[in-house]
Amino acid sequence: GAGVSQSPSNKVTEKGKDVELRCDPISGHTALYWYRQSLGQGLEFLIYFQGNSAPDKSGLPSDRFSAERTGGSVSTLTIQRTQQEDSAVYLCASSFDVWGANYEQYFGPGTRLTVT
Amino acid sequence: TQLLEQSPQFLSIQEGENLTVYCNSSSVFSSLQWYRQEPGEGPVLLVTVVTGGEVKKLKRLTFQFGDARKDSSLHITAAQPGDTGLYLCAGAGIYSGGGADGLTFGKGTHLIIQP
Questions:
Q1: Less packed terminus of chain B by CB within 10 Å, N or C?
Q2: Residue-by-residue pLDDT tens, chain B, 115 positions
Q3: Contacting residues of A for B43, CB less than 8 Å apart
Q4: Partner residue opposite B105 with nearest CB, options A42, A101, A108
Q5: Contact residues, chain B, for A99 at CB < 8 Å
Q6: Which of A45, A109, A110 sits opposite B100 (nearest CB)?
Q7: Which of A91, A103, A107 sits opposite B98 (nearest CB)?
Q8: Would you call A106 and B92 a contact, using CB atoms and an 8 Å cutoff?
Q9: How far from the centroid of its chain's Cα atoms is residue A49's Cα?
Q10: A99 touches chain B (CB under 8 A)
């Protein structure tokens, strides 16, 4: 079946603009995760959803970041008033569940965000 | 906070050589995953190890989970240029049930295999 897809693949935006990143998880996966990967850095966990619910939003870098998931499927990550330090690759992953061996995560190709 | 340290951070070797990369922590993990990431793509899951002392083989790649479930290693035999990539380990917290809030990623090992 289809893997995790993300759009757009690349986004260049001006400082101060809002951006919306989209993630389509693998069909049937209830859990969805957002990460940020900066050049030379590991994956920084941002937020996860179990169904449509995000139990813990403390990983979001600032209140300019928000995420939602509707219908237990597609998720959007929104960054308001973008700053240059927001430039990174934003990765989405999904897993069948968040518990036990079923949390193995499958990643999308990422959205490369560049803030000029 | 659970931290995973990966070493070396960078490794460049010739085709045909053997190599080992390490993933270490002072914390105990319920399981540990290894991913490989190529430029412009997301990480791809290679293996999950669950039991202390467990060894899993994937063709020329051998993964081992430490007896105390605090560390892991990845050994590649007769490395090929196609093995080039960023290798990431990720541990699931022992008390978290494996949820995302318990999944900790190391910064990765950048591996280059020169032909």
A1: N
A2: 558 899 999 999 999 999 999 999 988 888 889 999 998 899 999 999 989 999 999 999 999 999 999 999 999 999 999 999 999 999 876 554 444 555 788 999 999 999 9
A3: 43, 91, 107
A4: A42
A5: 97-99
A6: A45
A7: A103
A8: no
A9: 10
A10: yes
CB neighbours (10 Å) of residue B85? 20
Distance from C-alpha of A14 to C-alpha of B6, rounded to nearest angstrom:
35
**Residue whose entry in the numeric block shows the structure tokens 């998720």:** A75
All residues of chain A having their beta carbon less than 8 Å from the beta carbon of residue B45 are 104-106
Please, which residues have CB within 8 angstroms of residue A13's CB and are 6 or more apart in sequence? A19, A82, A113, A114, A115, A116
Six token digits for residue A28 = 């049937």
